[in-house]
Amino acid sequence: MSEQQEKKFLIRKVYTKNISFEAPNSPQIFTQEFEPKMDVNLNVESSKLEDTAYHALIRLTVTVNVGDKVAFLCEVEQAGIFVMTGFSEAELGYMLGSQCPNVLFPFAREAVSDLVVRGGFPQLLVDPVNFDALYANHMQQRQQQDESSNQPQGEIG
What we know:
This protein has two helices and four strands; from the N terminus they run E-E-E-E-H-H.
């Protein structure tokens, strides 16, 4: 009988990899009534660094328009180094696609809020994200793509 390795999940480092804030239409934007329209884009990336060390990154981009003008664009890349042992490949995928982003998101959310306020705009709190649901949705789409690409093609003749 083989002994199953104990599962460990350790956070080695959380850091901000990149920050960008632009207010291309300032100072004129501050003279208009502020009725913002917000667009939020979130991406998750991960890679293996060493035997049990992994790098995960979330890119949170927030664009706010007032009328037809961009009030501000804010992008934060929040990253971390995680050590994981004892997980199967499927479990590692889940950890990198859901649990690591869950650790990183509050840092990115806080950075966006701070940058927006420092840019002279009202405080912005990005809504919480359910990374479990996003990961499950991603895996379902991937499975559907795999199934559709494995179906036999009709004959031409």
